[in-house]
Amino acid sequence: MELITFKIILVVVLFAVSLGVAAYSTWGERKVAAILQDRIGPNRAGPFGILQPLADGGKLFFKEGFVPQGADRFLFYIGPALTMFISLITGAVIPWGKSLSIGGNSFDIQIANIDVGVLYLIAMVSIGVYGMMIGGWASNNKYSLIGAIRASSQMISYELAMGLSLLSIILMAGSLDLHYITSSQGVGKIWGFIPADGMNWNIFYQPLAFLIFFIAAMAETGRAPFDLPECESELVNGFMTEYSSMNFGQYMFGEYVNMFISNALIATLFFGGFNYPGINWVSENWGENIAGTLSIFAILGKTVFGILVFMWIRWTIPRFRYDQLMHLGWKKLIPLALVNLIITTAVIVFFAH
């Protein structure tokens, strides 16, 4: 019963945090853009414009929602809802902390600790594109349809590179369990000889895999310079052209929740996840609960830093042409990921013998 109660609380907290991060990522993005462009940014709704996301959300609720003539009404509403739903359930397998002791029992801070967590994530990411495809097709708009087709082709090309880069991490860890992959980065020594309590992160062993995964994650979330499915200069707003009110809001929330989860996953796979310097010492000397609480702040801090990097890149690098986008995915990232996988396999086999 305690386990069920803990999991229910964890689901509610993760849902609230995901929506909160998504809402305030819009405020953060406008502030980051303002800094880079020497502007002020939101500064009217509350101190430093901190209430701007609440004002924008309220405005979306009261805007008129319409369905274009000739559109498929059912699918038109399903598209954004599916995008939002898939974005939210993806975080269920990410370990958001080490563990907490409650009533003498130890609970992992993870909603679903399944043996094939990596496969679950890849499956959810693959399904996520259906929200864009359905919305673009159901809108009965050629701009929307082209945006939906772009989204699907973009996702396919970058998912291959992402999957191949993930294989290198799976080979090193010997498991598809995200909690095991994270825990393995908190023990041992860097490169086998540098003592590092909680710092034996995969980034030190797989920098190329990280670079490939990072680029693919930006493309998967549809962030600039990979926002070709929306591309205002060519497609008005791509697959979202005909959407308004909270239907549009669900697409936007889905994008920002995806960015949050993607950076949490990057932190988990390459930067030790909930591990931080001295985590094992803290656990032994200060107790499981203090170590677990600090581990939550550790992964959230790494995730927020990743989000800021995503924003920085968006407002720094111009959008690719579509042929350049495909060229990067198929002719650059996939071959590099294959080479990295072959080298990783060879090194593992060599040291195994």
Quickly list its features:
353 residues, mainly alpha, two-stranded antiparallel ribbon, 12 helices
Could you walk me through the main structural features you see in this protein, from its secondary elements to its overall organization?
The chain is mostly helical and 353 residues long. The chain is 66% helix and 3% strand. It is built from 12 helices and 4 strands; from the N terminus they run αααββαααββαααααα. It has a two-stranded antiparallel ribbon. A two-stranded antiparallel sheet has the order 3-4. Strand 1 and strand 2 form a beta hairpin. Helix 1 packs parallel to helix 11, helix 5 runs antiparallel to helix 7 and helix 10 packs antiparallel against helix 11. It is globular and about 65 Å long. The chain starts with a helix and ends with a helix.
